[in-house]
Amino acid sequence: MKSLHFLAVALFATVASAADWTPELMPPEQGVRAPLAPVQFLLPALPPETLEKLALELDSFDVTAYVSSTDGRHAVFTPPQPIGQGKHELRLVEYLAGGQMLERGRWTLEIRSGEGYREASLKGNLVFNLTRRLAAHNLAAGTPGPNQADGAVSLRGALADGDWKLTGAADLLGNSQHAQLPRRDGPIDLATFLLTAEKGPVVAQVGHHAVGPDSLVMQGFSRRGVSAGVKSADGGAALTAFALNTGNVIGFQEGLGVGDADKRTVGVVASVKPLAGQDLSIWGTWVSGAGQDQTGAGGSGVAGDAARSKGQAAALSGYGAFLDKRLQVRAETARSHFDADGPGTDTNGDGVIDSDLPYRDGSSHLLMLNWSPWDKLEAAGRPAALSFGLERRHVGTWFRSPAAAGAVRDTDLWKGGLHFDWAGVHGDASLARAGDNVDEQPNVARSRSILST
Ligand SMILES: [Ca+2]
Ligand SMILES: [Ca+2]
Predict the structure, then answer these.
(1) pLDDT tens profile 186-202
(2) How many CA atoms lie within 13 A of 283 on its CB side?
(3) Residue 14, domain member (yes or no)
(4) Residues 223 and 337 in one domain
(5) Judgement on whether residues 238 and 375 belong to the same structural domain of the protein
(6) In this structure, are 40 and 179 located in the same domain?
(7) 3-state class of 336 per DSSP?
(8) Which of 297, 345, 346, 398 has a CB 3.0–4.6 Å from the CB of 362, allowing a cystine?
């Protein structure tokens, strides 16, 4: 039986090689492939029964019905509708007896709108509101006139050629009441903007954006500024350096947001996926910055609340998903060196600094586990899911980062919980033990609590 099988394979191989041929894709007539231009092939002299078994696929869709030929050698595919700009895959296959499929040719089609660029687009979106106040009795002095207008314009553009691409986005605001706009001056203002330039492995961004994955030292830190990075061809490793405004600048003001060293945060994020094909990432983040974060009003007790706070922080972070993603692990460790009030504060307003905190060192550690032991669980004939979570978070009393204003501070937490879903019902239960004044400062109050939900 085994030898028969081998014989069959050998026979098939001989037939296939005897009938070996490759089609040829003809270059476009005008140098670029336009969205509706016919695509031409040259085939060798083939018997009619072979021609009948050929099929053409565009991006995995069978488009054989749109192929015609007058002599069996020159085949023309006429797109029934414009092919989108960019790269597409075209495949010519032959169906063999027995249902097997043999790929005869595979090409990348690049569709362009014109000679100039591979991709060029600009989209705009306008919203405009006009409000007229009808009643005008008993209005306070200084009330704006009866006609009010406001609007927003959203612009998106892209330009690409070869291995480079430029994309831009900007949101503009208009309001007849100038005080309603970020800059409070003039009827038109800018909300946010972002320009991205990519060339091969290099990416540069200017405008409102976040850099790299979140960590203990950088969380939700989307700000106006500049960044430049390089990534490996497979996307597994990346290195990005940035300078962003510490606060949240909007409007036509402060330019790129990084001109003032007292309001600037600079840093580097490096990430690597050490095992190919595995869902495992390790990234390091270093930040150094000064200034007030918009979430921390003075005296709010949130990191960065003092307008002139400054410092550095660094974190090493890892995330992995194992056992078909049923076990997820996140681990981080971080250190900081931070002066919460910079050169000090004048607490009684007499013009003389009377409170100046020193630089303090802090550390922070995090471990989070999530485990779903069963892949497919059923209870009483209905699908069910059950997962267990464990969180260990230890944030030192003096741990702060200029790029993580809203982060949890000064906590010593153990938390365990479970989550279940069954027949559309979700439930969570957890038990946590939390404490503060982690560094046991003698003049800071200390609390401990146990919570269950
Ligand atoms: Ca200080
Ligand atoms: Ca004073």
Answers:
(1) 888 888 899 999 999 99
(2) 24
(3) no
(4) yes
(5) yes
(6) no
(7) strand
(8) 398
What value does the mean pLDDT of the chain take? 84
Determine the distance separating the centroid of ligand 2 and the alpha carbon of 398, expressed in angstroms: 24
Q: Binning pLDDT at 50, 70 and 90, where does residue 1 land?
A: very low
Q: Are residues 370 and 387 in the same domain?
A: yes
User: What backbone phi and psi angles, to 5 degrees, belong to 256?
Assistant: -80, -5
Which residue blocks in 211-270 are alpha helix, DSSP H?
Answer: none
Domain that holds residue 153: 121-131+148-196
Q: What is the count of structural domains for the chain?
A: 3
Same domain, 168 and 210: no
The predicted pLDDT at position 306 comes to: 58
88-146 pLDDT, tens digit per residue, is 999 999 988 887 888 999 998 888 766 667 778 888 888 888 877 666 566 665 566 67
CA 360 – ligand 1 centroid, Å: 9
d(CA 33, CA 107): 13
Residue 86 and residue 30 share a domain: yes
State whether 174 and 228 are in the same domain.
no
Which ligand number lies closest to the CA of residue 356?
A: 1
How far is residue 406's CA from residue 184's CA, in Å, rounded to a whole number?
27
Centre of ligand 1 to C-alpha 143, Å, is 45
Q: Does 345 lie in the same domain as 227? A: yes
Centre of ligand 1 from the C-alpha of residue 398, in Å? 13
Ligand 1: centre distance to CA 278 (Å) = 45
Measured in Å, residue 45 CA sits from the centre of ligand 1 at 85
Ligand 1 geometric centre to CA of 317 (Å): 29
Which ligand is the nearest neighbour of the Cα of 351?
Answer: 2
